[in-house]
Amino acid sequence: MNPITLYRKAYSGLSRNSWLLTLVVFINRSGTMVLPFMTIYCTQALHFSIRQAGVVMAMFGLGSITGAFIGGKITDRYGFYDVQIGSLLSAGLLFILLGYQTHFYAICACTFILSLCNDAFRPANSTAIAHYSSPENKTRSYSLNRLAVNLGWSFGGAIGGFLAAHNYHLLFWVDGCTNLLSGVMLMILMPRANAKRNLTQRHHTAQSSPYKDGVYMLFILFVVLFAFCFFQIFTLQPVFYKTEWHLTEQLIGGLMALNGFLVAFVEMVLIHNLEGRRHPMQYICFGIFLTAIGLTLVNWMPAMALTGVMSIILVSFGEMFSMPFMNAFWISRTNEHNRGQYAALYTIAWSTAQVLAPALGSQIIAFAGYQSLWWTLGAICLLSIAGFYGLYQKRLKTVKVAPEMLLPETK
User: Fold this and answer.
1) What is the torsion angle, in degrees rounded to the nearest 10, for the CA atoms of residue 69, residue 71, residue 73 and residue 79?
2) Which among 36, 59, 84, 125 would be 20 to 30 A from 302, CA to CA?
3) How far apart are CA 258 and CA 246, in angstroms?
4) Cα distance between residue 129 and residue 397, in whole Å
């Protein structure tokens, strides 16, 4: 079966609202330009130190943790529709406002509030996807959303590179306007709906906390280690390419776009051929190994654009092998009464890594240089592999994960 047939079969029969929601997400993600270029903007346009730029990027992560937590709470209280609208519109205005800030502390504060509002969208959007799906096509609806995220990220990164080469402030305006456009489109194209709260499920959830699951807590620790390394390609690696290798903003944007295109067009076909053949932990370990090679490649290959392309291809395939099966693993340990708590902890793991990646990575650069950073990331990846493989060898060899649980991760 060829890839076109696979995609046609995978995405047929979805509801109209699922497609409209995907269109809104695609437009929103197509404007994702500020985050990939924020470190370059801070160091090149505002003349911040690499440490200050790392703190600013950490504010994005800290706001993400807070926004995801608050977004989940208010989604249960007020419904996903209003939370999505409020998040998109408020974040749109804040992106524009951020572009006019020049003082370090003002940028940190604005970045935190922006990220909080922006990431409150995520739990509300996940709830909306489930609401507009039937039990038979819920997984495919999430997969369609993932495709929109990655395509949008690719377009945003590519266009952002051209805009950054001319005027960095255009990034903030485009990012803000696409958020505002997404919010308006959501109000016009989709009817208001509210998810019903299930108080009985909430009671049962409190009785089965993931914090008492020792295997899962170790799993979360190793996820944080891997995610710490992975996020460097969106935070400090662009600065490395600009300041050390002197690549253009257009080329840097193209490398980020390549990541999104590869994931969007290859991952579903790859997972279709891999699912159910091996234990998820084996794929996770292989994916992290590819990521380690991709991150350290810049230390032992010539300083040229082709090396950057090879690096992003390896990291992209590392992402495709590892992240969907990480999702498969945590979902396999849940039931209908505790899935929300497990999902929340998994999300917080990634957001925590998003905070630590630029903050600690910039400190390594300041004290020892970029070369030491890439070797350190390779070592951390190997440590993460050892942890995941240890879980597999000692505790998980007999655990089976259903193929239908292989739900891809979102960026």
Assistant:
1) -160
2) 36
3) 19
4) 33
